[in-house]
Amino acid sequence: MAQKPLTPGSKARNTSLNLENQLVGGRYQVLKAIGSGSFGDIYQGLSLKDGTDVAIKVETADAKYPQLMYEAKVYEQLAESPGFPALLHFGCEKNYNAMVIELLGSSLEELFNLCKRRFSLKTVLMLVDQLLLRLECVHEHGFIHRDIKPDNFLMGLGKHSNKLFLIDFGLSKRYKDSGTEQHIPYRKDRNLTGTVRYASINAQQGVEQSRRDDMESLGYCMMYFNLGKLPWQGVTAANKKQKYERILEKKNSVSIEELCKGFPAEFALYMKYVRNLRFKEPPDHVYVRQLFRILFRSLGHQYDYIYDWTQLHSQEKERLRRDREREKEHDHHRMCDRVAYHGRDRDRPRDRDMRRTSTQYVMPHSYRRMSSKYDRDWIGDGALSKRK
Ligand SMILES: Nc1ncnc2c1ncn2[C@@H]1O[C@H](COP(=O)(O)OP(=O)(O)OP(=O)(O)O)[C@@H](O)[C@H]1O
Ligand SMILES: [Mg+2]
To answer: How far apart are alpha carbons 231 and 339 in whole angstroms?
Structure first.
């Protein structure tokens, strides 16, 4: 188990290692930093064996709470299941540990920002279905995640670009013994582990976390996507301890009806269901998934993996195509002018554009700008991720 006691207000942050261009495990080249978490940095890298892109998560060898080897072991156990990045390598280098995993795309937090912090019900429900499947899988393997939040949900890349992945198992924990299958005991003296905004009420009250807490955090994520903001966001206080207390007060005072007002009853039903789960009770994943699947069908939606951002991407693609056509037309006219001009007066000095041969093509400024933005959206650079 990764034992990382995070007390409100204090967070272990490993110092940054600048690993650009270094070789990890003898065959992964570090390219550039793509993210930074509470426990270390994440780089994009390249497998020198087959040229595939990878993600490399590192921590210093003298980290106060080493977690990477533990995280690698969890990924190893989840390897056969869809929606978790493949573990490619774990190793200890001279002054740091490195875990190499499959490179993924943008996080739901980044995509939420891209979509102006609103997701349609259709997008939310397609995501919820996959998130429930991921949690079910984690729980079936005997783990609880303990840091369920939009920054830890990443879309895949390439042929997996429609698939939602769950990452970041540094705070995860076994809730039952792998041999005896015995559930961990109830305790009420725990510091908060995870991210306060999405933490369950029990977790904030110091109760040992179990499967129900992942489910409750997922409920807050759903409402975050529905509302754009949770009622306890923006709470201020003199210090972090007081801020956490005020967040807890607000979580307790906002009723489920109030939280889910204006959205289909299934969201309130889900919240009530998860808040009423007992400590050791196995969540009925099938029931909750069905609840949202029936809602999805009753709203007449198609499970076509067209998310809100897919449409943004295709609008951008369309703009790009139109730009290209316009440019081609423009070039064609220029070529016609050129022929006519040469025919008329051969001695007149030609301008810079005219000196280009027909095979040279200078990318127009507008196209260059659009194309790099388009590329960035699709490769989905990881953004900085900090606990809120
Ligand atoms: N496989 C990956 N592909 C692409 N980006 C990734 C990958 N893994 C992590 N990232 C990026 O790096 C960020 C931090 O990674 P991760 O959550 O694993 O680290 P962490 O130290 O546990 O972070 P935190 O505690 O802030 O959640 C992610 O939110 C994501 O943006
Ligand atoms: Mg994370």
So the answer is: 67
- Hey, which of 108, 151, 171 would you mutate to test ligand 1's pocket, going by the most ligand atoms within 8 Å of its Cβ? 151
Q: Tens of pLDDT along 317-331?
A: 677 778 777 877 776
Indicate which ligand has the atom closest to the C-alpha of 85: 1
Contact 244, 192 (CB under 8 A): yes
* Whether the predicted model's global pTM rises above the 0.90 cut: no
Phi, psi of 20 (to 5 degrees): -50, 135
Amino acid at 75: Y
> What's the CATH number for 23-102?
3.30.200.20
CA–CA–CA angle 225, 226, 232 (5° rounding)? 75
Closest CA to 80 of 28, 155, 140, 16: 140
- Per-residue pLDDT at 264 exceeds 50: yes
Between helix 265-275 and helix 211-227 the angle, nearest 10°, is 150
| CATH 3.20.80.10 corresponds to the domain 108-306 | no
